[in-house]
Amino acid sequence: MKIFIDTANIEMIKEINSWGILDGVTTNPSLIAKERTDLKTCVTEISKIVDGPISAEAISLDAEGMIKEGRELSGIHQNINVKLPMCIESLKATKVLSAEGIDVNMTLIFSPHQALLAAKAGARFVSPFVGRLDDIGQIGSDLLSQIVTVFRNYDTETEVIAASIRHPVHVLEAATIGADIATIPYDILKKMVSHPKTDEGIRLFLADHEKSKKK
Ligand code: E4P
After folding, report:
1. C-alpha closest to that of 181 among 202, 165, 203
2. What distance in Å separates the CA atoms of residue 126 and residue 105, rounded to the nearest whole number?
């Protein structure tokens, strides 16, 4: 499973990239606003750090505007794809942009039907929001599982990004189900590294090493 980071924070991206595990980055307007930056400056900066897909979200609600934004954003760097919110207008825009070789990440996916349509229109990625479904008492991992199954049935090239990840169990579910990608917030990536028994083991080995030096 490929690992993307879900943030617009440059320092966090640099740090996780330095671990050697980072395959790409997703941003959204909320993440951009949190960093008090603007989308173009932010994704330009990210493209200098990460060698992999970078999602930049369009804010237009009509196909014409989405296409214009998509062309502009993808023109910044070859790795930048345009994130479009799932709707009829974005399906139209996806058809045009994908025919031009511009990758689309269809976001705010909450049903397998939406994912199927996005893939048919030519989206390179679909982003089902696992955590936001859990938030309302539905099972986000079931959605992920349905989409992965449907895409496998037809050898669909569109990649499934498990999004709205809230804890390490979501990552495990995504990997078990066979999602192509999980886009993971910084604090959850940090949690994935640690285990109390690892920390304890390191402490014990070092203590024994100190003891053996004194002999
Ligand atoms: C993914 O592309 C989205 O930006 C993100 O995962 C949304 O996560 P949230 O539901 O925690 O805001």
Report:
1. 165
2. 6
Q: Where are the alpha helices (DSSP H) in 28-180?
A: 29-34, 39-49, 63-76, 88-99, 112-121, 130-135, 140-153, 168-177
Picking from 61, 24, 59, 67, the residue whose alpha carbon sits closest to that of residue 43 is: 24
Give yes or no for a contact between 85 and 107, defined as CB atoms under 8 angstroms apart: yes
pTM of the full predicted structure? 0.96
Q: How confident is the model over 97-108, as pLDDT tens digits?
A: 999 999 999 999
| Residue pair 160/128 in contact by the 8 Å Cβ criterion | yes
CA 129–ligand 1 middle distance (angstroms): 7
Q: What is the pLDDT of residues 52-87, one digit of tens each?
A: 999 999 999 999 999 999 999 999 999 999 999 999
On whether the CB atoms of residues 104 and 134 are closer than 8 A, the answer is no
* Residue count (the chain): 215
- How close is the Cα of 7 to the center of ligand 1, in Å? 9
